């Protein structure tokens, strides 16, 4: 079975450059929550949108004693519950014809030999063409044994030059710089660097990608996107939920490692980087790496970092327990559920502009945003009483949940007096486009199958991020317990004090 694009349709159907070629996706850890709620629904949604070819197969690998049809039922249940697009029997029949399941343990040679045989059969029966991606939806501690098994069984190496093999790994990419380097060495011993795809699902969100469009497709913003006009930048990822069932993962990791090291530093890089020569992966990464290498920590980490741990309180009208009372959390845990830091960037564009990053659980509401706050006008030719409530202009990029962009500026209030007040001008994806935004994993899975890597950080970016965070983590480790803050609030008082020392305050989204 072969697959080719019809060149006569290329000008009419913009999907065609984004349709994957013949291939399979092998998911290790297919019974886990990520596979069930994100990966399998994403595969179905891609197929439903016409972005997967008939010559596509999905292979599950796990310890369950399943047959192919049992795996198919699991996928169907997952799709019914979590898919973004409507269920289509026609799509399902085509997609499910390529489902396969291999039962076994990661240390089981026979299981990987069966997987190798399954992959060869798919090449013959489904026309997958020798192109296979291996998604490691498993703990990093298992990467070594799985990668070695892929190499031993011949799965890591394509048989011909026109075929490919790729590996996909999920964050966390280590828990500090040394472990990140060790993890990278494990994977790169088996797969070449351009065949390794490190997934940060935030980079697949439409609104995150829109940062690049906003900056570089519009002449309006570039002249003022610098220290001459920008006062400071706030990057926030707030959650209104607690740790839920993630106690085993979260305790000992904390908010900074879980969110700041990857999601928020990637947002910082996209906001602060220079315009790349192109959006080719190498050019985009080069600019992000330049910015991350120019990040400077404040000299006083006591003053310009804050960490907290949520205590019991009211959240969403419900009284909820504190972190230390959650199931599976030790009563003496010093893991932070809130982290805030100030970073500076030693470049001409951003000299003197602080970047404030914060993340936390059990906060006032769920929101992720980037706020570029501009300096005040040097002179206001109005009566002092006319502009009493006038704030600073701001451009706010809303990543979730109300995806869009808001601009805040001063405008005259209708009436006979010259009264100026803050107003907002709003763009929202929901009412500006008829197209529904795809889920982040749809974009990222498709990029893996296409071999399109701009949204995937290389190990250099990962290591630079750990170089920023490690000194902060080491400082906190010597400081005892984090500061408690009530559930439903916006974090500990020390975070507010951090900005107040600079004459600023956090936005309340």
From TrEMBL:
One of its GO terms (biological process) is glucose metabolic process. Residues 212-507 form the Glucose-6-phosphate dehydrogenase C-terminal domain. Residues 26-210 form the Glucose-6-phosphate dehydrogenase NAD-binding domain. Substrate binds at residues 201, 205, 239, 258, 361. Signal peptide: none annotated. Gene3D superfamilies: Dihydrodipicolinate Reductase, domain 2, NAD(P)-binding Rossmann-like Domain. NADP(+) binds at residues 63, 105-106, 171. InterPro entries: G6P_DH, G6P_DH_AS, G6P_DH_C, G6P_DH_NAD-bd, NAD(P)-bd_dom_sf. Its EC number is 1.1.1.49. This is Glucose-6-phosphate 1-dehydrogenase. It comes from Phytoactinopolyspora halophila. The lineage of its organism: Bacteria, Bacillati, Actinomycetota, Actinomycetes, Jiangellales.
């Amino acid at each position: 079975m072969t697959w080719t694009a019809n060149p006569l349709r290329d000008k009419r159907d913009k999907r065609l450059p984004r349709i994957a070629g013949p291939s399979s996706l092998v998911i290790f850890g297919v019974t886990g929550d990520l596979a069930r709620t994100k990966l399998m629904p994403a595969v179905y949604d891609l197929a439903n949108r016409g972005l997967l070819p008939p010559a596509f197969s999905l292979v599950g690998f796990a310890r369950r004693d399943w047959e192919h049809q049992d795996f198919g039922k699991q996928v169907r249940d997952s799709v019914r519950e979590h898919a973004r697009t409507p269920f289509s029997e026609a799509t399902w029949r085509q997609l499910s014809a390529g489902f396969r399941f291999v039962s076994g343990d990661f240390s089981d040679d026979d299981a990987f030999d069966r997987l190798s045989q399954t992959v060869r059969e798919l090449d013959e029966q489904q026309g997958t063409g020798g192109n296979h991606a291996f998604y490691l939806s498993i703990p990093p501690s298992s990467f070594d044994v799985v990668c070695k098994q892929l190499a031993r069984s011949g799965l890591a190496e394509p048989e011909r030059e026109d075929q490919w093999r790729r590996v996909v790994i999920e964050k966390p990419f280590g828990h500090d710089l040394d472990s990140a380097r060790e993890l990278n060495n494990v994977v790169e011993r088996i797969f070449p660097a351009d065949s390794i795809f490190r997934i940060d699902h935030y980079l697949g969100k439409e609104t995150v990608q829109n940062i690049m469009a906003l900056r570089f497709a519009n002449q309006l913003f570039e002249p003022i996107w610098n220290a001459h006009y920008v006062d400071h930048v706030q990057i926030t990822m707030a959650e209104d939920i607690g740790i839920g069932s993630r106690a085993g993962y979260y305790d000992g990791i904390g908010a900074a490692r879980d969110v700041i090291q990857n999601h928020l530093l990637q947002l910082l890089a996209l906001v602060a980087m220079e315009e790349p020569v192109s959006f080719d992966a190498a050019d985009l990464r080069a600019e992000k790496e330049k910015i991350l290498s120019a990040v400077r920590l404040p000299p006083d980490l006591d003053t310009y970092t804050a960490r907290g741990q949520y205590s019991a309180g009211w959240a969403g009208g419900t009284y909820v327990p504190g972190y230390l009372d959650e199931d599976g959390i030790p009563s003496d845990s010093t893991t932070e559920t809130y982290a805030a830091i100030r970073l500076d960037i030693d470049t001409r564009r951003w000299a003197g502009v602080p970047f404030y990053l914060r993340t936390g659980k059990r906060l006032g509401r769920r929101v992720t945003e980037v706020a570029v706050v501009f300096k005040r006008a040097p002179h206001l030719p109005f009566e002092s009483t006319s502009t009493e409530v006038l704030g600073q202009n701001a451009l706010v990029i809303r990543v979730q949940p109300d995806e869009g962009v808001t601009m805040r500026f001063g405008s005259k209030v209708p009436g006979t007096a010259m009264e100026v007040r803050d107003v907002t001008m709003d763009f929202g994806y929901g009412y500006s486009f008829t197209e529904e935004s795809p889920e982040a994993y749809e974009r990222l899975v498709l990029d893996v199958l296409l071999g399109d890597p701009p949204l995937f950080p290389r190990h250099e970016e990962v290591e630079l991020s750990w170089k920023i965070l490690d000194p902060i983590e080491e400082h906190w480790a010597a400081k005892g317990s984090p500061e408690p803050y009530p559930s439903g609030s916006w974090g500990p008082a020390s975070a507010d004090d951090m900005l107040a020392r600079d004459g600023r305050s956090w936005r309340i989204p």
